[in-house]
Amino acid sequence: MSADVIAYGINTGFGKLAQTRVDVDKLSALQQNLVRSHAAGVGAPLESGIVRLVLCLKIISLAQGYSGVRPELVHRLIVMLANDMMPVVPAKGSVGASGDLAPLAHMALTLIGEGQVHFRGAVVPTSQALKAIELEPLKLEAKEGLALLNGTQVSTALALDAVLAAERNLANAILIGAISVDAALGSYVPFDERIHQIRPHPGQQKVAAIFRNLLNDSEINRSHALCDRVQDPYSLRCQPQVLGACLDQLWHASEVFLREAISVSDNPLIIPDTGEILSGGNFHAEPVALAADNVALAIAEIGSLSERRIAMLIDSGISELPPFLVEDAGLNSGFMVAHVTAASLASENKSLAHPASVDSLPTSANQEDHVSMATFAARRLAEMNENSQSILAVEYLAAVQGIEFRRPLKSTRSIEGAVEILRQEVPHLSTDRVFAPDIQKAARLLAGGKPAKSVLPLLSDLSAQDG
């Protein structure tokens, strides 16, 4: 590049200091200083699995050739992955424009031999880990520090991880919701294909089809075919509509996050064919922020609907089951406070679901006057998913307990399989005991995916047909 050309971040300062020229002999120092000054994150470190994904996404972006970095730098990131050398990256400090500056700066520190890494089972100084694999720190050249820091890779990694967990929660919610239908003597009519054909939302139709697969040939259902109940509560009857809408949001968000994963979110960009330097705004993570906000709403609704079904199951006036799902109620409290726990978590998720993307604050002396807050939008999803998983664990326990109160009648093959999986870990609640371990065991089962292993693949297959 000619010394007469002014290019942001290559031979100028950053942010509000973009008008400050930097001498040619200081361009490398400019990049080193950028990385050090921007490594200002706080809070607990990101999990190593998330950092690994961040590294992969950064490699994808840089390798496309629009960032003006040397192949040596990209290769060093690959070497870090190959040696499982994961930077220690504080989780907090990014506003999602200009990219994920602070967390990516902590990642970039390791390339210059500074900061800390997870390496061979311990957190060690980067210099020690580099010495162990016989590498020297890199000296960053013009533009390279900025290319490492600009980008939406942290937000995107968090979002990708969260949407996968949300899909697993949704699969569990469908299975457990089906168990609750039989436990509460619910009708199968709301899942009739004819109802959903005339409201062509793909998610609703998909969820209804899965319910039809799960709910077939049940002795429990046949036993109340001639009952006088006209309609079930919404938490049973409207599951395809509610969970289907959640599925639509997860599908859309997944598409957004995957597009972002293969994007170049750097600035400025260097066009390989012409060498032109273009300043733009691809670092702005608004697509990730908006999609993550929608995922948050879906996660909250999954948990909210589950909590309502728990409340229904423990209410003997609605479910026609023993009060609080326990024999000798009064002496025993059964699921009384397990439901309170679920209600607490559902309420937490409602607060956490507040849209992050509408909460922009200007930074860098108003040069960066609109930001996405994508990093928090994505990061809070992990806590929300954990909350919803725990709510679903309580419902799993409650619904299976309800099924067992319908004995000797049997439910469907799919539901009886889910009952057996739970009972291999958690016995029937015949009298009060400490409840927390039961919830934890049920949650671990749901996290592992075994109960809903036949449901989850269907959520990502738009072409999967009934049966």
Explain what you see.
This protein is mainly α and about 475 residues long. The protein has 2 domains: about 15-150, Fumarase C, Chain B, domain 1, CATH 1.10.275.10; about 155-460, Fumarase/aspartase (Central domain) (Fumarase C, Chain A, domain 2, Up-down Bundle), CATH 1.20.200.10. The chain has 19 helices and 7 strands. The strands form 3 sheets. The chain has a 3-stranded antiparallel sheet. A hairpin with a 2-residue loop joins strand 4 (about 115-120) and strand 5. Helix 7 runs antiparallel to helix 12. Pathway: Amino-acid degradation; L-histidine degradation into L-glutamate; N-formimidoyl-L-glutamate from L-histidine: step 1/3. Its EC number is 4.3.1.3. It is an enzyme of class 4 (lyase).
Gross morphology: elongated
- What is the chains' assembly state? single chain
Give the end-to-end Cα distance, rounded to a whole number of Å.
63 Å
Give start-end ranges of low-pLDDT stretches: 462-467
Q: How many β-strands, per DSSP?
A: 7
CATH topology (level 3) name of the largest domain: Fumarase C, Chain A, domain 2
The total number of structural domains is: 2
**Radius of gyration (Å):** 26 Å
CATH class of the largest domain: Mainly Alpha
β-strand amount: under 5%
Helical proportion, percent range: 40-55%
Second rung of CATH, namely the architecture of the largest domain: Up-down Bundle
Structural class call reads mainly alpha
Order of helices and strands: HEHHEEHEEHHHHHHHHEEHHHHHHH
CATH superfamily of the largest domain: Fumarase/aspartase (Central domain)
| Biggest β-sheet: strands ordered side by side in the sheet | 2-4-5
What is the averaged pLDDT score? Answer: 94
For the sheet with most strands, the description reads:
3 strands, antiparallel
Tally of helical runs: 19
